[in-house]
User: Fold this.
Amino acid sequence: MLWLCLHLPDLALEIFTRGAPANDPLVVVCGNGRKRRVALCNAAARGRGIRPDMGLNAAHALAGSLRVCERDREAERVALDRLAAWSGQFTSVVSRTPPQALLLEVAGSCRLFGGLERLKEMVSRGVAELGYRASLASAPTPLAASWLAQDGREACVTRQNALAAVLASLPLTCLGLTAKQSETLHGMGVRTIGDCLRLPRDGLARRMGPELIHILDRALGCVPDPRPAFVAPSVFASSLPLPGAVSTAEGLLFPVRRLLLELEGFLRARDAGTRSLSLSFHHAAAGTTPVRLELVAPSRDAAYLTLLLRERLDRVALPAPVEEVSLHVADPCPLAPRNLDFFAPAQAAEGMLIERLRARLGRDAVRGLGQVAEHRPERAWTYAEPGSGAAVRGGSGRQLLQGSACTSHGAEDRKRPLWLLREPMPLEVRGERPYLDGMLVLGRERERIESGWWDGQDIARDYFIACSGQGVRLWVYRELAGEHRWFLHGMFA
Amino acid sequence: MNLQDLMLGTEVWRAGAASAFAPGVPSGFPQLDALLPGGGWPPGMLTEILVPSPGIGELQLLLPALARLSRGNRWLAFIAPPHIPYAPALAAAQVDLSRVLLVHPRAATDGLWAVEQSLRAGTCSAVLAWPSTSDARALRRLQLAAEAGGSWGVLFRSGQSADAGSPAALRLRLAPTSGGIDVHILKRRGGWPVGPVSLDLRLDHAVAVPASAGSRA
Assistant:
């Protein structure tokens, strides 16, 4: 067993600050009434001389525009849970040690990630990108790892018999003793864990109770120390409060990116991707602006999703400044790994272009084409999902053939124009002949299309190929019923 | 050093050496291929096609090449087409419809953006666009994007823009004839303007072969 502990000393502060690269002084306070004290403060506040454990009034006196947040233990717990879900990408065994530490069992992961050092580097870089500061330490027992991380030592102990020597210099505060116990030990001249370990076991147990001995034994690995494994939820839901109201798309991109990084870790832990993301921007004045992103192929790549959302956010009209951003992903789906070509250079997946275009232009602006087994020209084609193929729909082919008067030769023989007009355009008629910037010269062949009696949209037309004065070959028809009007329906282009 | 040695060396670049160009996509018209640098439509370049009035056969000119390109695994993008590209006609010309991508941007600037993205992405074998602008700087961007993505960009523009300069690597002007088109090459890499080449478009697609059931209207 090798435990990696992530200790988050500033978690209570970071849940408020990670929404934006804030530079204003901010303090988190606890206690009530006149006993309100600064629990934690950010770098800007520290620069003004504010220190933890200072009275709130004193802090106000030092910094004029001080932002004060009430300590929110529930939010800290939720943040720790999300971080646990995120760190599931590094190992299958993650355990929470509330209020501000996570334990990762990494003995089996080191090899996969290229050694303990590289793994630690990846974890600490990832945590920093999410907006947290963590001190990391690894040791063969969970307790030893958390003590070392808590003390801020970037220690890396891999052998159990080396533990006692490393732990010896840690202060007694790690043990979480009661005030009376620490006073007793202090009176005995015991300052460090090393001092503790040097005392005779039975004497120490008699004076301090058996718990202390048990804790020390667990830390040194003499007795087992089982930890409950964290089970990540099956859907992703996370939100990020913004330190100041944001009204620009660029400003929203920062918190959105952090949420997407969180999502990436979450999805990586379950080896999944997603096809749709729901973002909500919560406004100060009640109300939210939803933004939904649909993907052609499942993805989890935060950099790519950020790119798509950048295009999208530019077009979102925000009715009011945003106070909180939340991201919800309900349907993690398996992510099929893509094979790289050994010879050809790595190429972007073909779906990426569609997603980029759709993110900016809208879903309906990017489509594919499909063919339909139909005799009516305006129904013989359809918009389709790009890449879905020229699947000829129908299956009612018999019915179609019956309805048509034109069955003498197959569809492939008939001449169809490359351009079809969205709506047939009525043509002027001069002396029984259609006219369009000059008399049209009609071709010899006539194609009769009579179809569609079964759905009330029936047509009866004679199609001709005509040539205009400009040398454009046109596809025109004359109605067989009614006024026998002439229409332009396509161009051979 | 004599002239022979100079010619054999690599320092002298000869404009007439067509082998210097990447092989083009055969256009399906041998008489046109003979004039195009690389023996076909140039991939990774911008081709401008100037049409006096839309519909004279500009799409049929490209159709054999599009059919060939659609057999690859990259998209054929139609950006802001003036009408609906008619699926049955494309399918009849052996164009694989599953490779066709239709993009209908609402604004002109979005159109240029979409053309540039499609050219640059490298996942389009051909990008056909009907731009409403003639801004030389925008065209220059598109030419660079085509080079970056290795896509063949085709811009359809009106005949009036023939006199204005353009960064496109290949510029053609089409003129209708009875039963076909004349292709004037206004600009090409490694050669002088040349033309016209008369292409017969009757046989391959447009005008009907007289059928037994034909009768006069």
User: Anything to note?
Assistant: Chain B has one domain: 25-205. Strands of chain B lie at 46-51, 75-79, 84-85, 100-103, 124-129, 152-158, 170-177, 180-187, 194-200. The longest strand of chain B covers residues 170-177.
